[in-house]
Structure formats: structure tokens, C-alpha cells
Amino acid sequence: MPTIKDPKRFRFALQYGTRVPDISAHVLVPMVNGSLVDVSSSALIHHSTKIHFGGPGAQAVLPYTTQTFHAKHFGPESYSIYRVNDGVYRFLAANDAKNFRTSNDFYESDARAFLYQGNQLLETASIATASGNPTNVWDVFSLSCEKAVCSLDTTNQFVKSP
């Protein structure tokens, strides 16, 4: 990972092997009105009143989160949060190859997620240790922030929807 000059910036990274060729990382960014913006290369869910697809995001304006690297297949992907909003951020990964790869293939994908603040690794999670029955969505971390003070929770579980 490249070094980061800002020690407060959060960075989420996802890497995976070849068992599932297309896994997408998602950062759900809390907004003032209680909705979430999904920063990712593909929408996690469509037509939701709570979650809005934000594409690759934006650095200098809301959501202050961008996709910083995305390989088309076989990962890795990384995202940066340049300024935190009050609320709960969610970091997820989804099996985008679900039309021809099962949730068990996703579970066996060797996917790993990393959360950094600045250049310091805060937490690592492996899909192989995720709790619950395998689904096509892996809820990895949540980051609760208030007035730029954040606390991390490693959720590391399979969910049906965010």
C-alpha cells in the first residue's frame, strides 16, 4: 500500500484469490439525513430509500470517500475516507459473480479485508472466519464516528442485505 501523509485518513482494502473472479468492496457512508451512500464500482442494492449508489465517490465534497484502486477481476480494491461524517460507516464485500459462483464459493474465496488509519493497520478480517451461514454479502467492519472521533467494530459476518 502506498504511504499516506494524512494520519487521520481511513483506508479500506480488500484482496481475494481466483475462486470468485469478481468481488466488490463497498463503503456505506453515513449522511446527515440518515441515508447511506454506497461508494463502490457497482451498486450493492438497487432502489432503496436508505442506501444510494454513489459510484467512485468524491474527495473534496460529500461523501468525502473515494475508490482509490479497483482491479476489474481478482482484486485488490481500496477506498479512502478523507473526512469522516458523524454516523456509522459500514465496510462490506459482495459476490458479484453470484450468477455462476455460489455463496459457498464466496466463503472459500480467501478474501481478506484491511482497515488502516493513516499508515497504521487497525484491523484485518478473513472471510474464512466470518460468522453465520455463507451468503453473497460479507459485513466486515463498522466505524462509528462522532465529531471526528471514531471507534471500530469488527463485525465479520455474513448478512442477507446491508
Structure notes:
With 162 residues, the protein is mainly β. The chain has a single domain (10-159), classed as Sandwich (Lipoxygenase-1). The chain is 3% helix and 49% strand. It has 1 helix and 12 strands. The strands form 2 sheets. A 6-stranded antiparallel beta sheet has the order 5-6-7-1-9-10, with no helix packed on it. A 6-stranded mixed beta sheet has the order 4-3-2-8-11-12, with no helix packed on it. The longest helix has 5 residues, at 103-107. It starts with 9 loop residues before the first strand and ends with a strand. The relative contact order is 0.24. The mean pLDDT is 92.
Q: What is the second-level CATH architecture?
A: Sandwich
Largest sheet: 6 strands, antiparallel
Unreliable sequence segments: none
User: What fold name goes in the CATH topology slot?
Assistant: Lipoxygenase-1
Average pLDDT figure: 92
Helix-strand category: mainly beta
The coarse silhouette is: globular
Class in CATH?
Mainly Beta
The named CATH superfamily? sav2460 like domains
Q: Please count the beta strands (DSSP E, at least 2 residues each).
A: 12
Supply Rg.
15 Å
Q: What is the terminal-to-terminal distance?
A: 28 Å
Placed side by side, the strands forming the largest sheet appear as 5-6-7-1-9-10
**Helix content class:** under 10%
Whole-number count of domains: 1
- How many helices in DSSP terms? 1
Instruction: Report the sheet-strand fraction.
Output: over 45%
Order of helices and strands: EEEEEEEEHEEEE
